[in-house]
Write a structure and sequence with these properties.
single chain; alpha/beta; 9 helices; 3-stranded antiparallel β-sheet; 31% helix
């Protein structure tokens, strides 16, 4: 019997992603939740704080669509191609809406998720030395070690209102299995108040896979079947990265009219 947590993607986004939310769409190199990002665009969510260690095309699209008021990140770009031009336009000219940014290091972002997942108020790390980020970022501070007296960096815990990740498969009870290159998906899900996972398929049994992570149904709010839901990134064991799509996006994202045409087509494709 299928779990009630298995829903359509439009239903999951409608019920769990709200205007003004802090939203994390995580996935590193592959398993990037593009289908979920596109659905958030289609449903016209606004004033979101978008969180992601490596915002790439999916967030460029969401920013260009006017979904975001703030971006929390540690690196941004079109991998292997260049800049995120919708992000740059929002920062430089406020089109379509002004964008605020909060920048961290990769280690800082990862530790923020870990603290959030652990129920701790902050994380401690050796980092940010020699940078000006602490001067411009309220969520970076310092703490003195009570044992050695060493001054260390401290970063505030990150607890998104909703985290969205993509995975290879789920069983009918709503347990999710993902493998390949893993980023901070597990930590981002455990840190969140609500969690959505899109999957390539539903199977009867999650057979063991080397290095796989299983997210149990009880930590998730919705599981939605979205075949090729990570495209144009890849899903290990299912399909390859579409390098041509990443190159093509550079041309689309540079021009407001071309981007607006892409956005219109995205809406038409859903009808």
């Amino acid at each position: 019997m299928a779990s009630s947590k298995i829903q359509s993607l439009p239903q999951a986004v409608s019920e769990l992603v709200h205007d003004g939310d802090v939203v994390a769409l995580e996935g590193f190199t592959h398993l990037i939740p593009f289908a979920a990002g596109h659905e958030i665009i289609r449903q016209g969510r606004r004033d979101l704080t978008l969180v992601r260690m490596t915002p790439d095309l999916v967030y460029d699209r969401m920013i260009g669509a006017g979904c975001a008021r703030k971006l929390v990140f540690s690196w941004g770009g079109n991998p292997g191609v260049g800049s995120l031009h919708r992000m740059r336009d929002a920062l430089a000219s406020g089109w379509p809406v002004p964008l605020e940014i909060e920048e961290h290091s990769h280690a800082g972002m990862a530790n923020r998720y870990v603290a959030g997942a652990s129920g701790l108020p902050f994380a401690v790390l050796r980092g940010y030395a020699g940078t000006e980020l602490p001067e411009h970022t309220d969520t970076i501070s310092t703490v003195t070690c009570p044992f050695t007296g060493e001054e260390l960096a401290a970063v505030a815990a990150l607890n998104p209102d909703v985290t969205v990740v993509h995975a290879q498969r789920a069983d009918r009870a709503g347990n999710v299995q993902l493998w390949g290159i893993l980023g901070v998906q597990k930590e981002a899900v455990l840190a969140a108040r609500r969690a959505i996972v899109t999957v390539e398929e539903i199977v009867d049994e999650l057979t063991p896979v080397p290095g796989a992570v299983v997210l149990p149904a009880w930590v998730l709010d919705a599981v939605a079947v979205a075949p090729r839901g990570a495209a144009p990134s890849y899903a290990h064991g299912y399909y390859d990265r579409d390098n041509a799509a990443y190159r093509a996006w550079d041309t689309v994202s540079r021009d407001r009219e071309k981007f607006s045409a892409w956005l219109e087509k995205l809406q038409e494709d859903a009808s």
